[in-house]
Protein backbone atom coordinates (compact mmCIF):
# COMPACT_ATOMS: atom_id res chain seq x y z
CA UNK A 1 0.00 0.00 0.00
CA UNK A 2 2.34 2.67 -1.22
CA UNK A 3 1.88 6.22 0.00
CA UNK A 4 0.51 7.97 -3.01
CA UNK A 5 -3.57 10.45 -4.74
CA UNK A 6 -5.20 11.31 -7.89
CA UNK A 7 -6.83 14.56 -8.93
CA UNK A 8 -10.52 15.18 -8.55
CA UNK A 9 -12.50 16.19 -11.60
CA UNK A 10 -15.80 15.31 -13.20
CA UNK A 11 -16.66 15.52 -16.86
CA UNK A 12 -19.81 17.58 -17.52
CA UNK A 13 -22.74 15.57 -18.77
CA UNK A 14 -24.47 15.98 -22.12
CA UNK A 15 -28.21 15.49 -21.76
CA UNK A 16 -29.83 12.87 -23.99
CA UNK A 17 -33.30 11.38 -23.75
CA UNK A 18 -34.00 7.68 -23.39
CA UNK A 19 -35.61 7.70 -26.81
CA UNK A 20 -32.41 9.02 -28.39
CA UNK A 21 -33.91 12.38 -29.30
CA UNK A 22 -32.97 15.49 -27.33
CA UNK A 23 -36.49 16.85 -27.80
CA UNK A 24 -38.67 13.89 -26.86
CA UNK A 25 -38.96 11.47 -23.97
CA UNK A 26 -37.64 11.80 -20.45
CA UNK A 27 -33.93 11.37 -19.99
CA UNK A 28 -32.77 8.74 -17.48
CA UNK A 29 -30.49 11.41 -16.13
CA UNK A 30 -33.42 13.74 -15.41
CA UNK A 31 -35.41 11.33 -13.27
CA UNK A 32 -33.31 11.44 -10.10
CA UNK A 33 -35.19 12.60 -7.06
CA UNK A 34 -38.81 11.69 -6.49
CA UNK A 35 -39.69 13.94 -3.58
CA UNK A 36 -41.51 16.29 -5.91
CA UNK A 37 -43.14 13.56 -7.96
CA UNK A 38 -45.56 12.16 -5.36
CA UNK A 39 -47.54 13.84 -2.62
CA UNK A 40 -48.67 12.44 0.74
CA UNK A 41 -52.32 13.24 1.48
CA UNK A 42 -53.90 12.78 4.92
CA UNK A 43 -57.56 11.81 4.58
CA UNK A 44 -59.90 14.29 6.28
CA UNK A 45 -62.48 11.66 7.25
CA UNK A 46 -61.36 9.07 9.76
CA UNK A 47 -57.71 10.18 9.64
CA UNK A 48 -56.99 7.70 6.81
CA UNK A 49 -53.69 7.87 4.95
CA UNK A 50 -53.53 7.75 1.15
CA UNK A 51 -51.15 8.64 -1.67
CA UNK A 52 -52.00 10.96 -4.54
CA UNK A 53 -49.69 10.65 -7.50
CA UNK A 54 -48.71 13.64 -9.62
CA UNK A 55 -47.24 13.48 -13.11
CA UNK A 56 -43.44 12.95 -13.09
CA UNK A 57 -41.46 16.17 -13.07
CA UNK A 58 -38.18 16.70 -14.90
CA UNK A 59 -36.19 17.03 -11.69
CA UNK A 60 -32.56 17.84 -12.50
CA UNK A 61 -30.02 15.26 -11.49
CA UNK A 62 -27.70 16.06 -8.65
CA UNK A 63 -24.07 16.55 -9.56
CA UNK A 64 -23.32 13.07 -8.23
CA UNK A 65 -25.63 11.32 -10.68
CA UNK A 66 -24.89 13.64 -13.59
CA UNK A 67 -21.19 12.85 -13.82
CA UNK A 68 -20.32 11.21 -17.12
CA UNK A 69 -17.00 9.77 -18.32
CA UNK A 70 -16.32 9.29 -22.03
CA UNK A 71 -15.69 5.78 -23.37
CA UNK A 72 -13.79 6.61 -26.57
CA UNK A 73 -10.65 8.21 -25.16
CA UNK A 74 -6.87 7.90 -25.57
CA UNK A 75 -6.43 5.92 -22.34
CA UNK A 76 -9.16 3.62 -21.12
CA UNK A 77 -11.48 5.18 -18.53
CA UNK A 78 -11.03 4.15 -14.91
CA UNK A 79 -7.29 4.83 -14.77
CA UNK A 80 -6.99 8.58 -14.24
CA UNK A 81 -10.70 8.95 -13.47
CA UNK A 82 -11.14 10.23 -9.88
CA UNK A 83 -11.75 7.45 -7.37
CA UNK A 84 -15.37 6.33 -7.32
CA UNK A 85 -17.60 5.39 -4.41
CA UNK A 86 -18.29 1.84 -5.57
CA UNK A 87 -16.26 -0.69 -7.49
CA UNK A 88 -16.34 -4.25 -8.78
CA UNK A 89 -13.26 -6.16 -9.90
CA UNK A 90 -13.99 -9.34 -11.83
CA UNK A 91 -11.84 -11.82 -13.75
CA UNK A 92 -13.10 -14.19 -16.44
CA UNK A 93 -11.63 -17.32 -18.00
CA UNK A 94 -12.49 -18.17 -21.59
CA UNK A 95 -14.76 -21.20 -21.86
CA UNK A 96 -13.41 -24.53 -23.06
CA UNK A 97 -13.06 -24.39 -26.82
CA UNK A 98 -13.31 -20.61 -26.99
CA UNK A 99 -10.41 -18.90 -28.75
CA UNK A 100 -9.47 -15.75 -30.60
CA UNK A 101 -12.71 -15.49 -32.60
CA UNK A 102 -14.91 -15.86 -29.53
CA UNK A 103 -12.73 -13.44 -27.55
CA UNK A 104 -13.02 -10.80 -30.29
CA UNK A 105 -16.81 -11.14 -30.37
CA UNK A 106 -16.94 -10.87 -26.57
CA UNK A 107 -14.80 -7.72 -26.44
CA UNK A 108 -16.97 -6.21 -29.16
CA UNK A 109 -20.11 -6.88 -27.09
CA UNK A 110 -18.51 -5.68 -23.89
CA UNK A 111 -17.24 -2.46 -25.46
CA UNK A 112 -20.65 -1.56 -26.85
CA UNK A 113 -22.34 -2.29 -23.54
CA UNK A 114 -19.75 -0.24 -21.65
CA UNK A 115 -20.14 2.67 -24.08
CA UNK A 116 -23.93 2.69 -23.68
CA UNK A 117 -23.99 2.34 -19.91
CA UNK A 118 -21.31 5.01 -19.41
CA UNK A 119 -23.53 7.36 -21.45
CA UNK A 120 -26.49 6.60 -19.19
CA UNK A 121 -28.24 4.48 -21.81
CA UNK A 122 -29.72 1.00 -21.25
CA UNK A 123 -27.83 -2.10 -22.30
CA UNK A 124 -28.48 -3.27 -25.85
CA UNK A 125 -30.43 -6.42 -25.01
CA UNK A 126 -32.31 -7.63 -21.97
CA UNK A 127 -31.60 -4.60 -19.80
CA UNK A 128 -32.59 -5.25 -16.18
CA UNK A 129 -33.69 -1.63 -15.54
CA UNK A 130 -31.77 -1.65 -12.25
CA UNK A 131 -30.39 1.82 -12.94
CA UNK A 132 -33.33 3.25 -14.89
CA UNK A 133 -33.85 6.26 -12.61
CA UNK A 134 -30.15 7.06 -12.20
CA UNK A 135 -27.66 9.03 -14.22
CA UNK A 136 -24.31 7.64 -15.33
CA UNK A 137 -22.85 8.48 -11.90
CA UNK A 138 -19.33 8.62 -13.38
CA UNK A 139 -19.50 4.96 -14.41
CA UNK A 140 -16.30 3.58 -15.90
CA UNK A 141 -15.56 0.14 -17.34
CA UNK A 142 -11.95 -0.93 -17.95
CA UNK A 143 -10.80 -4.12 -19.72
CA UNK A 144 -7.50 -6.01 -19.48
CA UNK A 145 -5.81 -9.25 -20.56
CA UNK A 146 -4.05 -11.71 -18.28
CA UNK A 147 -0.96 -13.80 -19.04
CA UNK A 148 -3.03 -16.92 -19.77
CA UNK A 149 -5.22 -15.14 -22.35
CA UNK A 150 -2.53 -15.23 -25.03
CA UNK A 151 -2.03 -19.00 -25.01
CA UNK A 152 -5.80 -19.53 -25.04
CA UNK A 153 -6.14 -17.40 -28.18
CA UNK A 154 -2.96 -18.40 -30.03
CA UNK A 155 -1.46 -14.95 -29.57
CA UNK A 156 1.64 -15.89 -27.56
CA UNK A 157 3.88 -13.83 -29.87
CA UNK A 158 1.89 -10.73 -28.94
CA UNK A 159 2.20 -11.26 -25.19
CA UNK A 160 4.19 -8.37 -23.63
CA UNK A 161 7.35 -9.14 -21.67
CA UNK A 162 5.97 -6.82 -18.98
CA UNK A 163 3.17 -9.35 -18.42
CA UNK A 164 5.55 -12.02 -17.13
CA UNK A 165 4.25 -13.40 -13.79
CA UNK A 166 5.05 -11.37 -10.71
CA UNK A 167 7.76 -12.81 -8.45
CA UNK A 168 6.86 -14.45 -5.15
CA UNK A 169 6.95 -12.28 -2.05
CA UNK A 170 7.44 -13.57 1.48
CA UNK A 171 4.28 -11.81 2.71
CA UNK A 172 2.08 -13.52 0.08
CA UNK A 173 -0.65 -15.87 1.22
CA UNK A 174 -2.26 -16.10 -2.20
CA UNK A 175 -5.46 -17.94 -3.06
CA UNK A 176 -4.89 -19.12 -6.64
CA UNK A 177 -8.63 -19.38 -7.22
CA UNK A 178 -8.94 -15.64 -6.60
CA UNK A 179 -5.86 -14.65 -8.59
CA UNK A 180 -5.04 -13.92 -12.24
CA UNK A 181 -7.46 -14.86 -15.05
CA UNK A 182 -7.71 -14.62 -18.83
CA UNK A 183 -9.69 -11.37 -18.83
CA UNK A 184 -10.11 -8.65 -16.23
CA UNK A 185 -12.82 -6.02 -15.86
CA UNK A 186 -12.80 -3.06 -13.49
CA UNK A 187 -16.12 -1.30 -12.89
CA UNK A 188 -16.40 1.94 -10.94
CA UNK A 189 -19.30 4.33 -10.27
CA UNK A 190 -20.51 6.81 -7.68
CA UNK A 191 -23.75 4.87 -7.23
CA UNK A 192 -23.92 1.24 -6.10
CA UNK A 193 -26.89 0.33 -8.31
CA UNK A 194 -25.23 1.82 -11.39
CA UNK A 195 -22.09 -0.22 -10.67
CA UNK A 196 -24.09 -3.43 -10.11
CA UNK A 197 -26.10 -2.79 -13.28
CA UNK A 198 -22.89 -2.70 -15.29
CA UNK A 199 -21.54 -5.83 -13.60
CA UNK A 200 -24.71 -7.77 -14.35
CA UNK A 201 -24.86 -6.58 -17.96
CA UNK A 202 -21.26 -7.59 -18.66
CA UNK A 203 -21.72 -10.96 -17.00
CA UNK A 204 -24.76 -11.63 -19.22
CA UNK A 205 -22.81 -10.47 -22.27
CA UNK A 206 -20.16 -13.11 -21.55
CA UNK A 207 -22.72 -15.79 -22.42
CA UNK A 208 -21.02 -19.07 -23.23
CA UNK A 209 -17.71 -17.46 -24.22
CA UNK A 210 -16.32 -16.90 -20.72
CA UNK A 211 -17.09 -17.69 -17.10
CA UNK A 212 -16.38 -15.71 -13.96
CA UNK A 213 -13.17 -16.81 -12.25
CA UNK A 214 -13.41 -14.44 -9.27
CA UNK A 215 -15.15 -11.24 -8.28
CA UNK A 216 -14.40 -8.65 -5.57
CA UNK A 217 -16.49 -5.70 -4.42
CA UNK A 218 -15.12 -2.45 -3.03
CA UNK A 219 -16.02 1.05 -1.91
CA UNK A 220 -14.62 4.48 -1.22
CA UNK A 221 -15.93 7.63 0.36
CA UNK A 222 -18.66 9.22 -1.77
CA UNK A 223 -17.77 12.46 -3.55
CA UNK A 224 -19.15 15.38 -1.57
CA UNK A 225 -19.15 13.51 1.75
CA UNK A 226 -16.52 15.87 3.16
CA UNK A 227 -16.72 19.65 3.54
CA UNK A 228 -13.95 20.02 0.98
CA UNK A 229 -12.12 17.64 -1.37
CA UNK A 230 -9.48 15.64 0.46
CA UNK A 231 -7.36 12.53 0.12
CA UNK A 232 -9.25 9.36 0.99
CA UNK A 233 -8.72 7.32 4.15
CA UNK A 234 -8.31 3.56 4.26
CA UNK A 235 -9.89 1.21 6.80
CA UNK A 236 -6.95 1.72 9.15
CA UNK A 237 -8.02 5.35 9.43
CA UNK A 238 -4.94 6.63 7.61
CA UNK A 239 -4.96 9.26 4.89
CA UNK A 240 -3.92 7.11 1.93
CA UNK A 241 -2.84 8.55 -1.40
CA UNK A 242 -0.86 11.69 -0.67
CA UNK A 243 2.05 11.11 -3.03
CA UNK A 244 0.28 9.64 -6.03
CA UNK A 245 1.81 10.89 -9.30
CA UNK A 246 -0.35 13.56 -10.92
CA UNK A 247 -1.19 14.10 -14.61
CA UNK A 248 0.18 17.64 -14.28
CA UNK A 249 3.68 16.28 -13.67
CA UNK A 250 5.92 16.30 -16.78
CA UNK A 251 6.88 12.62 -16.54
CA UNK A 252 3.40 11.31 -15.64
CA UNK A 253 2.66 9.80 -19.07
CA UNK A 254 5.96 7.96 -19.36
CA UNK A 255 5.61 6.52 -15.86
CA UNK A 256 2.03 5.33 -16.20
CA UNK A 257 1.35 4.64 -19.91
CA UNK A 258 3.01 2.68 -22.70
CA UNK A 259 4.25 5.20 -25.31
CA UNK A 260 2.76 5.53 -28.80
CA UNK A 261 5.80 3.75 -30.28
CA UNK A 262 6.07 1.22 -27.48
CA UNK A 263 6.14 -2.57 -27.71
CA UNK A 264 4.02 -4.41 -28.48
CA UNK A 265 2.28 -1.94 -30.79
CA UNK A 266 -1.22 -2.95 -29.66
CA UNK A 267 -0.40 -1.71 -26.13
CA UNK A 268 0.19 1.90 -27.27
CA UNK A 269 -1.37 4.30 -24.72
CA UNK A 270 -2.16 1.36 -22.47
CA UNK A 271 -1.01 0.54 -18.95
CA UNK A 272 -0.39 -2.45 -16.70
CA UNK A 273 -2.62 -3.05 -13.68
CA UNK A 274 -1.43 -4.91 -10.62
CA UNK A 275 -4.37 -6.07 -8.51
CA UNK A 276 -3.90 -7.31 -4.94
CA UNK A 277 -6.45 -8.22 -2.28
CA UNK A 278 -4.75 -7.03 0.90
CA UNK A 279 -6.38 -8.15 4.14
CA UNK A 280 -5.95 -5.67 6.99
CA UNK A 281 -5.57 -7.30 10.40
CA UNK A 282 -7.65 -4.61 12.02
CA UNK A 283 -7.92 -6.16 15.48
CA UNK A 284 -4.13 -6.15 15.82
CA UNK A 285 -3.80 -2.70 14.28
CA UNK A 286 -6.39 -1.12 16.55
CA UNK A 287 -4.55 -2.36 19.65
CA UNK A 288 -1.73 0.06 18.82
CA UNK A 289 -1.77 3.57 20.20
CA UNK A 290 -2.21 6.39 17.72
CA UNK A 291 1.45 7.30 18.22
CA UNK A 292 2.53 3.74 17.42
CA UNK A 293 0.30 3.65 14.31
CA UNK A 294 1.86 6.90 13.12
CA UNK A 295 5.35 5.47 13.57
CA UNK A 296 4.39 2.47 11.43
CA UNK A 297 3.15 4.71 8.61
CA UNK A 298 5.46 7.70 9.05
CA UNK A 299 2.59 10.18 8.91
CA UNK A 300 0.12 11.72 11.36
CA UNK A 301 -3.23 9.97 11.45
CA UNK A 302 -5.17 13.19 11.88
CA UNK A 303 -4.17 14.92 8.66
CA UNK A 304 -1.66 12.74 6.82
CA UNK A 305 1.22 15.16 7.39
CA UNK A 306 4.72 13.61 7.62
CA UNK A 307 6.08 13.10 11.13
CA UNK A 308 8.91 15.46 10.17
CA UNK A 309 6.40 18.34 10.18
CA UNK A 310 4.29 20.53 7.94
CA UNK A 311 1.04 19.65 6.18
CA UNK A 312 -0.09 16.64 4.16
CA UNK A 313 1.77 17.65 1.00
CA UNK A 314 4.93 18.86 2.74
CA UNK A 315 8.03 17.03 1.54
CA UNK A 316 9.09 14.43 4.10
CA UNK A 317 12.43 15.17 5.78
CA UNK A 318 14.01 11.71 6.02
CA UNK A 319 17.06 12.97 7.90
CA UNK A 320 15.30 14.89 10.69
CA UNK A 321 16.03 13.60 14.19
CA UNK A 322 14.47 14.22 17.59
CA UNK A 323 16.19 15.52 20.75
CA UNK A 324 17.67 12.09 21.38
CA UNK A 325 19.09 11.73 17.88
CA UNK A 326 16.53 9.20 16.65
CA UNK A 327 15.00 9.55 13.19
CA UNK A 328 11.61 11.27 13.40
CA UNK A 329 10.40 9.13 10.48
CA UNK A 330 11.46 5.58 11.46
CA UNK A 331 13.78 3.73 9.10
CA UNK A 332 11.11 1.07 8.43
CA UNK A 333 8.12 3.43 8.18
CA UNK A 334 5.84 2.57 5.28
CA UNK A 335 5.88 6.09 3.84
CA UNK A 336 9.68 6.20 3.86
CA UNK A 337 10.10 2.85 2.10
CA UNK A 338 7.57 3.58 -0.65
CA UNK A 339 8.89 6.99 -1.69
CA UNK A 340 9.90 6.99 -5.39
CA UNK A 341 13.22 8.66 -4.57
CA UNK A 342 13.97 5.72 -2.29
CA UNK A 343 13.21 3.23 -5.10
CA UNK A 344 15.12 4.49 -8.10
CA UNK A 345 12.19 6.65 -9.19
CA UNK A 346 9.75 3.72 -9.31
CA UNK A 347 6.23 5.09 -9.37
CA UNK A 348 2.69 3.71 -9.57
CA UNK A 349 -0.69 5.38 -9.85
CA UNK A 350 -2.65 3.85 -7.00
CA UNK A 351 -6.41 3.65 -7.44
CA UNK A 352 -7.72 1.24 -4.80
CA UNK A 353 -11.05 0.36 -3.22
CA UNK A 354 -11.63 -0.70 0.38
CA UNK A 355 -13.51 -3.94 0.98
CA UNK A 356 -15.45 -5.62 3.79
CA UNK A 357 -16.68 -9.15 3.17
CA UNK A 358 -18.22 -9.93 6.53
CA UNK A 359 -17.18 -10.95 10.04
CA UNK A 360 -16.11 -14.51 10.86
CA UNK A 361 -17.27 -16.68 13.75
CA UNK A 362 -14.52 -15.25 15.97
CA UNK A 363 -15.66 -11.69 15.30
CA UNK A 364 -12.72 -10.89 13.02
CA UNK A 365 -13.58 -8.63 10.06
CA UNK A 366 -12.61 -9.79 6.58
CA UNK A 367 -11.70 -6.29 5.45
CA UNK A 368 -8.90 -4.40 3.81
CA UNK A 369 -7.81 -2.93 0.50
CA UNK A 370 -8.43 -3.96 -3.11
CA UNK A 371 -5.12 -2.54 -4.23
CA UNK A 372 -5.03 -1.50 -7.90
CA UNK A 373 -1.98 0.27 -9.27
CA UNK A 374 -1.11 1.42 -12.77
CA UNK A 375 2.29 1.73 -14.42
CA UNK A 376 3.99 1.63 -17.82
CA UNK A 377 6.02 -1.39 -16.70
CA UNK A 378 5.39 -3.36 -13.49
CA UNK A 379 9.04 -4.45 -13.40
CA UNK A 380 9.94 -0.78 -12.92
CA UNK A 381 6.86 0.17 -10.90
CA UNK A 382 5.25 -2.31 -8.52
CA UNK A 383 7.93 -5.00 -8.30
CA UNK A 384 10.90 -2.99 -6.91
CA UNK A 385 8.71 -1.23 -4.35
CA UNK A 386 7.07 -4.46 -3.18
CA UNK A 387 10.45 -6.19 -2.92
CA UNK A 388 11.66 -3.42 -0.66
CA UNK A 389 8.49 -3.54 1.44
CA UNK A 390 8.95 -7.30 1.69
CA UNK A 391 12.35 -6.80 3.34
CA UNK A 392 11.28 -4.67 6.29
CA UNK A 393 8.08 -2.64 6.11
CA UNK A 394 6.72 -1.84 9.58
CA UNK A 395 3.21 -2.28 8.18
CA UNK A 396 3.77 -5.91 7.11
CA UNK A 397 2.69 -7.52 10.42
CA UNK A 398 -0.71 -5.86 10.06
CA UNK A 399 -1.58 -6.87 6.48
CA UNK A 400 -1.76 -10.05 4.40
CA UNK A 401 -1.70 -10.31 0.60
CA UNK A 402 -4.39 -12.88 -0.23
CA UNK A 403 -4.91 -12.58 -4.01
CA UNK A 404 -2.96 -11.17 -6.93
CA UNK A 405 -3.24 -10.47 -10.63
CA UNK A 406 -1.36 -8.67 -13.38
CA UNK A 407 -3.17 -7.46 -16.50
CA UNK A 408 -2.25 -5.72 -19.74
CA UNK A 409 -4.77 -2.92 -20.29
CA UNK A 410 -4.63 -1.60 -23.88
CA UNK A 411 -5.26 2.00 -24.85
CA UNK A 412 -8.77 3.33 -25.27
CA UNK A 413 -10.89 2.32 -28.24
CA UNK A 414 -11.26 4.89 -31.00
CA UNK A 415 -14.68 5.69 -32.47
CA UNK A 416 -15.91 2.58 -34.27
CA UNK A 417 -13.43 0.28 -32.47
CA UNK A 418 -13.74 -2.07 -29.54
CA UNK A 419 -11.17 -2.44 -26.78
CA UNK A 420 -8.40 -4.85 -27.78
CA UNK A 421 -9.26 -4.77 -31.48
CA UNK A 422 -5.70 -4.01 -32.51
CA UNK A 423 -4.57 -7.17 -30.67
CA UNK A 424 -7.36 -9.49 -31.74
CA UNK A 425 -7.59 -8.37 -35.36
CA UNK A 426 -4.04 -7.17 -35.92
Element-level helix/strand string: EEHEHEHEHEHEHHHEEEHEH
How much β-strand is present in the residues?
15-25%
The average pLDDT value, as a whole number, equals 88
Secondary structure tally: strands: 11
Shape: globular
Low-confidence parts, pLDDT < 50 over ≥5 residues?
Answer: 4-55
Number of helices: 10
Q: Structural class, please? A: alpha+beta
Whole-Å distance between the termini? 37 Å
- As a whole number of angstroms, the C-alpha radius of gyration is 23 Å
Number of domains: 1
Share of residues in helices:
10-25%
For the largest beta-sheet, the strand count, sense and barrel status come to:
5 strands, antiparallel
Walk me through this protein's architecture.
- There is one protein chain.
- Helices cover 18% and strands 19% of the residues.
- With 426 residues, it is α+β, with helices and mostly antiparallel strands.
- It has one domain (65-424).
- It is globular, with a radius of gyration of 23 Å.
- The protein starts with 37 loop residues before the first strand and ends with a helix.
Amino acid sequence: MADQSIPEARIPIVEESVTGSPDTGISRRRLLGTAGATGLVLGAAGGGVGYAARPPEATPLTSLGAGQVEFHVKHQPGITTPMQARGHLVAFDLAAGAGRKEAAALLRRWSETARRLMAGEPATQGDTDVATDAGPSSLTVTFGFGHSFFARTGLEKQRPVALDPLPDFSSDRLDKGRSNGDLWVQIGADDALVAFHALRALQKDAGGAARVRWQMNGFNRSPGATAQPMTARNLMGQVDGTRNPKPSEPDFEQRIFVPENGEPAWMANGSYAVVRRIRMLLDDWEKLSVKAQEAVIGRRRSDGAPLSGGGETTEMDLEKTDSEGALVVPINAHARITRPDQNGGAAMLRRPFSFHDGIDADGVPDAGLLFVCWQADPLRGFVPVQRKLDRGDALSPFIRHEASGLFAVPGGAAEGEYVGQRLLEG
